[in-house]
Design goal:
It contains 3 helices and no strands. The protein is mainly alpha-helical and 89 residues long.
C-alpha cells in the first residue's frame, strides 16, 4: 500500500522543492570556495589569472554550470511527469 499509494504522492509533493534545493546548493558551492573549498569557480579564477584568458575560462564554466543545472531541472521535470502519470493527476 505504501509503495503504490503514499510514496508517489510523497515524491510528487517533495520533488519540486528538493530539485530547487539541489540547484541552489550547486550554485552556492561558489560561496564555499571563499572559505577554502576548491570548486569550479575557484579553479576558473586561478586558471584565468595564470593564462590571462578570463573570457574563455569563464565561458566554459558558465556552460558547465548551465549544463548541470538544466540537466537536473530536466530530470526533475521528467520524473514529476512520470509520477503524475502514475498517480493520475
Amino acid at each position: 500500500m505504501y509503495v503504490d499509494v503514499i510514496a508517489p504522492q510523497l515524491f510528487m509533493t517533495a520533488l519540486p522543492s528538493a530539485t530547487t534545493f539541489g540547484i541552489v546548493l550547486l550554485k552556492d558551492t561558489a560561496v564555499a570556495s571563499t572559505i577554502g573549498v576548491s570548486e569550479l569557480a575557484a579553479a576558473a579564477h586561478h586558471m584565468s589569472q595564470e593564462t590571462f584568458k578570463g573570457i574563455e575560462v569563464y565561458t566554459v564554466v558558465c556552460i558547465l554550470y548551465l549544463a548541470i543545472s538544466l540537466s537536473m531541472a530536466t530530470a526533475s521535470r521528467n520524473l514529476d511527469r512520470r509520477l503524475r502519470a502514475k498517480v493520475g493527476c
